[in-house]
Design a protein that fits this description.
116 residues, alpha+beta, Lipocalin, 8-stranded antiparallel barrel, 2 helices, globular
Amino acid sequence: MRKAIAVSLVVAVLALATTRAEARDLTYEDILGKWCGEGLTYTISRDRLTVTFRSGDEPPRRNTITDFAFDSDTVTINWLDSRNKNERVHTKFTEFSSDGRFMTQVSVRTRHFRRC
């Protein structure tokens, strides 16, 4: 009986380790593209973050992206703020849906986005 329990524990630990090993970090494919949020749209390429306000009251903000940081549940975009003397800032995104259609911005304030 003890041997069966020990074998079951080993199998469970190996299954958990395999599942964790298969987890992947987010990639460019997860973040690049056009994202619609409440009142604004982000267009994200490898080198540019363009913010367009749907009200039309402001011209689009075109910001240079310096780099991306990826992990298993968050993408951080480091960029230069074009309206603030190219100050270095970052924006974090998380809660990526498994179908790649939704994400949440968690920097400064929480905003929900969908692919558009």
